[in-house]
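Supplementary Methods S3. Complex input for the NAI-bound model.
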Amino acid sequence: MSTHSYTVTLIPGDGIGPEVTEAAERVVAAAGVKIDWERVEAGAEVIAKHGTPVPDSVLNSVRRNRVALKGPITTPVGQGFQSANVTLRKALDLYACVRPVKSIPGLPTRFEDVNLVVVRENTEGLYAGLEHRVAPGIVESLKVVTEHACLRIARFAFELAERQGRDKVTAIHKANIMKLTDGLFLECARKVARGYPEIAYDELIVDNCAMQLVKDPSRFEVLLLDNLYGDIVSDLCAGLVGGLGVVPGSNVGDDCALFEAVHGSAPDIAGKRLANPSAVILSAAEMLRHLGEDGAAHAIVRAVHATLTDPMTRTADLGGTATLDRMTDAIIGHLE
Ligand code: NAI
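Predicted complex, serialized as structure tokens:
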């Protein structure tokens, strides 16, 4: 039991967000870490009151506490407000999105030896959604890429590789077509790579990368990607180890860090208490590690893995029949 107490911002989100973050709160408490959760709301529900999906009170809470746990937030397709997720990442300069993708022993999937990390640039590129209508029937999307953002995400990837004892970084790109934007991304990655001679560096075109990942993911260690490729490849990688229900993530900047799963708000199962809470619980474990609570983080990961190993406590996304609550209870049971 840790004696320290922390204040952490909690953004429950919408869809399955409130259900899975509540499960994470229960598991963190059961692991013996005292957290005073500062609950703030973001997303479509708050627009009527605040005129924006991300009110200043949310940003200020994360800035003050420097650590946040977040559930997914729905973004309307083809219309409506700008993504609350993109807004949060840009406003807080959470420039690195980190998604560890690891095979879970005892959870049957196509591969048994996946152990890679997706490092995604989180603030610019096509994903920034800088779009406008040029004329009737013609629209334009701006892919703005800066040397500053490319260098810092490349440095982040190599530093992560060094810290985790990983021996290779692979930059993913489409510089055969986007010669300037993806060309700059590669130029910066190569420049940073020269400062890490003990870490191997290679490059792969993004379409080939998708094929190589589904054929033999064991050849990858750290994937360095821009914002849009990173978004897509993250879901692909999640599929290699059991799906979106089991892969955690974090958004990291120099001043604060926001932890969230790779998955979205899953409207198809929202409110039914059928969602797999593991991805958000594992994100909470990453958060505890960030806070220096390595013991509790390790215990939670072990408890989640033990739960996923037992077919009786798996949720429907993993072929089981357990509800969210049954799985959460099982995780807590493995902590005791
Ligand atoms: P999604 O990740 O919400 O769902 C894709 C599929 O995976 C669905 O069949 C869903 O039921 C399943 N799934 C996802 N998480 C699951 C879990 N924990 N347990 C069991 N099954 C799970 O992706 P989709 O449908 O493309 O997006 C839905 C909404 O979520 C959109 O509005 C999107 O913008 C938003 N979104 C938000 C994110 C965030 O807040 N970080 C990230 C990704 C999407």
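The two ends are 12 Å apart (CA to CA). The chain has two domains: 1-98+244-336, 110-240.
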